[in-house]
Each structure stands twice: as structure tokens, then as C-alpha cells.
Amino acid sequence: MAPSKLDLHSLIVFYYVASEESITAAADRLCLTQPTVTYHIRSLERNVGLKLIDIKRQKIFLTQAGAGLFQYVKEIYHQMTSAEKYLENLKEDSLRVGIATTFSTCVASAASAFEKLYPNVRLVIRSSSSFEVVDEVLSSQVDLGIVVSMDYANPKLKSITLSDRQKLVLVASPSSSIAQRERLEYVNLCGYPLILGPETSATRQIILKKIRVGGCATPSPIIVEVNSSEWGINLVENGEGVGLQHIMGVERAIADGRLKVLPLSGDILVGVDAVLRADAPEHPMAERFISLVREACQASHKKSPVRAAAKK
Fold first, then answer.
1. Which residues, in sequence order, are CB contacts of 299 under 8 Å at separation 6+?
2. SS (H, E, C) 181-194
3. Residues 144, 293: one domain?
4. pLDDT tens-digit profile of 249-282?
5. What's the total number of domains in the chain?
6. Would you place residue 221 in the very low, low, confident or very high pLDDT band (cuts 50, 70, 90)?
7. Which domain holds residue 251?
């Protein structure tokens, strides 16, 4: 087999030059001198026999061949980064998990059980919206994501269904005017202040769609954005608006009379997915964490007096 004309180090240098669109910026990122960066680019061009970049007025422009090669080199770079992080995780005995804010309470029991079973594994939890968690998985910032089940339309993502029936409820302060109504339709929420997650929140998209389909003519209700379920619950308790929460996260507040479930017809049910990069080696501890989350989701289906009351 003939040796490859492509030198891996030169390809990485090319990746930075193409990404930064600058020899100087690439040199700074790589901690190399500008002549060294230029040498690698020229060496790569000589080896493949094609012009890859043009420099006009100190600005980088990719040739047709360079633009085509860049698509392959981006994949090589991301694969190398993923491989490095995978090996680092094995060495450090750590597991990084991104959790959608919606399921933070539900997954807390799984995280606690994991730490008891594997005390030598450093568990790192990051909580954000579902779409942000997916981005973190794809960029290898986390090894595993727990998100609201949706079509995230990315072939590089592998999804594992953990549950298809997690109940969300719309809650308000018992003293608010909207909580006094015996029955509500989604159109009745039109223009009422909503306390939801950011635009990257999957549950926000779900409830806004229900309100829109329910007959709300305005583009969207008034929204107070929060990045924390706890902060959102506090705002709802203070009468600032209506919030959409996982039933597990508000059970105590409902039982204590601090929150009331709004009497909307039909349950709001969402699925729970574990997401991983399809092209990355699976972290050896990811499957075990997924199993614990699945058990926690199944346990959340068990009825309690509060959940039974929420159905009335």
C-alpha cells in the first residue's frame, strides 16, 4: 500500500487556517510561528498537487479544491477531538451529562444512585435547555444528554428512548385570577404572562404550539424567560405568571397550597430521550447512567395523592 500524500499535522494546520481565515490567527491558536504555518500549507499543496488557498490583501480565500478538502478535514478534526476527550474521560474516570432543565428533578435521583454505586467516578452534571444539551453532545462538551423527546434533525445524533409518558402541568399561584376558573382552554392563556425556558427550550415550543393551535391569534403570549426550574417556580408562586413544570418538580408546592394546577383538558405528556454522538465511542459509564435514568422515569409514573388530585 502506497503511503498517504496527506500529513495529519498539516491537515490540522489547514483546518485552523480555513476556520480562522487567517494565517496569523491560526498561528496564534496553534502556538506556532506564521512561517511554520505557511510551510505546512505549502507542503500540503505540494503533496496533493493542488492549490488550496489564495491570499489576497492578507486575507485567506479557499480554492474550490480547498473548500472541498475543508469539509473532510472538519470531520477529521472533530473525530480527533472526540477521541481525545473519550480517552481523557477513561483516564479521569469521569462522566459528563447534560440534562434538560425540565427533567432536573426527575434525574436527580438517578444521579444520586449513580454516585453511590460508583463513588470513584466523577459525575459532572450540566443543566440547560434540550436544544442546548443536544449542541453540547454534538460538540463533545458532554458525553451524554437527557432531553425532551423531539426530532432534532441531526444524523450525527443517536437517540435512546427512556420514557414516553412524563407529565407536565401548567401551574399558577392559587391567588391569581386564572387559577379561580373551574375550566380552561388553551386559548384562555392567550396574552397571559407565561414563565417558560429560553427559545432553545423544547417544552416552551410544545406549550406555545398548543396555545397557537388552541386558537390564540396573537403571535405569542407575554413570556418571562428563566433558565432554572426553581427560579421559574418561585416566580409563579409570587403570582408573576403561569409556568409549565414537570409534575415531580412541583408536587410539594402543590401539596403545600403554594401552587395550583390549571384545569386544562387533556394531559401534557412528553418523552425522555438519552442522546449521544452516533460517530463517537460510547463512554463506558454512559449505559449505566442511562439505565438509572430509565428506572427513575418509570418510578415517576407511580401515582401519588398530588398527581391524582392534579388530574381532577
1. 109
2. CCCECHHHHCCCCE
3. yes
4. 899 999 999 999 999 877 899 999 999 999 887 7
5. 3
6. confident
7. 165-269+304-310
